[in-house]
């Protein structure tokens, strides 16, 4: 892999204060300011002392190993191609990032809700619906372990975003109101084979949501692009989570916090799980009122003032570069829909062939 990463370039931070009842305001403020500074600089941080149990992590990765070792016909019981809600298992090479095939196999799970009608508008509301689960006799504990995992990562993401909110000088009540009652988060359970030459396990991209919580496993492969264009190898830190800013947090902070391009290229098989923390689908992405000094920092930096977003399929067709769009959607659901249209043309063709995409 090209490039090297060091812990001082992608810092390792203890977030124990987020889970300590006796942590005082000064500790909380110091942590909030440090997390904000890191996410303003490179948008990635490795966190330890996060309160997610080692035992839950072990059981989750064991579930993943068992699932991906199943025969194809058993995995296909939850084939994502059958889900108009983009949930379930997808075989190697299904997802596309920036029009390029990703060399990975994965299960996608979203916040579980009762499905709305197939013609409901706006179209992104059609993403609301149930997950698909393997029968107990095929994979024992699939649903139970998955939901326990997503709950634990949701708690961590919520505490981290609350800390960032504090560092930005924003009101916590406003965050709770803005996120809405029907938050839509997304979890991936991913199996990467060794990456063929010239390809990527997942191609260079920025994440769509607000905040990503990644359990990178024990195998290297994640790479982050710094502001000079150099690819940095993210080190494997046992017992840690890798946290990064998504495009929606970049949008709502007016570019103060940056969503950083990243990819996976691995020399050996690799398991990981990513949790993408998101709000209600109708959450506005208008910039929040930042303190004057933060707004001034954005204005003084070209990469913060014009950070770029993942292009829509129409923009890519028109020649806009992969992450060079100057615009983002008005609400979270629309941005999420843009991501799915880009990434899953076969599912769009099967379930939404009469939709305006």
Q: What would you note in describing this structure?
A:
With 357 residues, the chain is of the alpha+beta class. 31% of the residues lie in helices and 17% in strands. It has eleven helices and 14 strands. The chain has helices at residues 25-41, 54-68, 72-75, 142-167, 172-179, 247-252, 292-299, 302-305, 313-317, 332-343, 345-351, and strands at 12-14, 44-48, 88-90, 96-97, 100-101, 105-110, 186-192, 202-205, 211-215, 222-225, 231-233, 241-245, 262-264, 270-277. The strands form three sheets. Strands 1-2-12-9-14-7-6-3 form an eight-stranded mixed β-sheet. Strands 8-13-10-11 form a four-stranded antiparallel β-sheet, with no helix packed on it. A two-stranded antiparallel sheet has the order 4-5. Strand 1 (12-14), helix 1 and strand 2 form a beta-alpha-beta unit. Helix 1 (25-41) crosses helix 4 and helix 2 (54-68) packs across helix 4 (142-167). It is globular, with a radius of gyration of 19 Å. The model is unreliable at 1-7 (pLDDT under 50).
Structural class: alpha+beta
Shape: globular
Give me the count of strands: 14
Strand/helix succession? EHEHHEEEEHHEEEEEEHEEHHHHH
Low-confidence segments: 1-7
Features:
globular, 357 residues, 11 helices, alpha+beta, 14 strands, eight-stranded mixed β-sheet
């Amino acid at each position: 892999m090209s490039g090297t990463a060091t812990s001082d370039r992608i810092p390792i931070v203890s977030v124990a204060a987020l889970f300590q009842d006796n942590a005082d305001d000064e500790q909380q403020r110091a942590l909030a300011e440090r997390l904000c500074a890191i996410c303003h600089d490179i948008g990635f941080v490795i966190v330890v002392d996060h309160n997610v149990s080692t035992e839950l992590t072990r059981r989750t990765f064991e579930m993943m190993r068992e699932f991906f070792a199943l025969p194809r016909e058993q995995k296909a019981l939850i084939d994502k191609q059958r889900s108009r809600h983009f949930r379930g298992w997808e075989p190697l090479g299904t997802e596309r990032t920036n029009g390029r095939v990703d060399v990975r196999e994965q299960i996608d799970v979203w916040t579980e809700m009762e499905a709305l009608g197939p013609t409901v508008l706006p179209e992104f509301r059609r993403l609301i619906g149930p997950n698909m689960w393997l029968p107990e006799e095929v994979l024992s504990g699939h649903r139970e372990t998955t939901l326990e995992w997503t709950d634990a990562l949701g708690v961590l993401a919520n505490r981290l975003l609350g800390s960032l909110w504090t560092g930005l000088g924003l009101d916590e009540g406003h965050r709770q109101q803005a996120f809405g009652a029907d938050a839509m988060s997304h979890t991936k359970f991913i199996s990467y084979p060794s990456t063929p030459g010239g390809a990527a396990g997942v191609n260079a991209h920025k994440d769509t949501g607000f905040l990503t919580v990644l359990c990178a496993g024990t195998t290297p492969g994640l790479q982050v692009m710094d502001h000079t264009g150099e690819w940095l190898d993210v080190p494997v830190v046992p017992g840690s989570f890798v946290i990064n800013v998504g495009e929606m947090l970049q949008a709502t902070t007016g570019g103060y916090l940056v969503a950083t391009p990243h990819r996976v290229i691995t020399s050996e098989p690799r398991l990981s799980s990513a949790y993408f923390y998101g709000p209600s689908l109708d959450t506005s992405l208008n910039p929040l009122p930042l303190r004057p000094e933060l707004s001034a920092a954005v204005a003084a930096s070209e990469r913060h003032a014009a950070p770029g977003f993942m292009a829509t399929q129409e923009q890519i067709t028109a020649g806009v570069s992969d992450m060079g769009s100057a615009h983002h959607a008005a609400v979270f659901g629309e941005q999420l829909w843009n991501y799915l249209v880009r990434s899953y043309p076969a599912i769009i063709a099967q379930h939404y062939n009469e939709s305006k995409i």
